[in-house]
Amino acid sequence: xxxxxxxxxxxxxxxxxxxxxxxxxxxxxxxxxxxxxxxxxxxxxxxxxxxxxxxxxxxxxxxxxxxxxxxxxxxxxxxxxxxxxxxxxxxxxxxxxxxxxxxxxxxxxxxxxxxxxx
Length: 118
Prior knowledge:
globular
């Protein structure tokens, strides 16, 4: 059974930090590019960051460059999103996403809520 389980969300003040985690099971984690997406109320889901199979390449949305860092631990089958200097506009439901490189087979997590507010 495939599972992507996000954790680490919560309420944080502007300027604060959070670290999201996504634990994967039920598929060969090291063969999947991993991403974080987010969706704010009334808005479309948007790509936040993507990391390659081995973790040596990452891409970010312009809005989070320099503030967010994506990483992965293939031995622990986990992907992380370190979020610093958080802004109210970062408030959203954050989703973990896995996509198999060679054929596009993909999976979504259920999401973890991040709220940035004073």
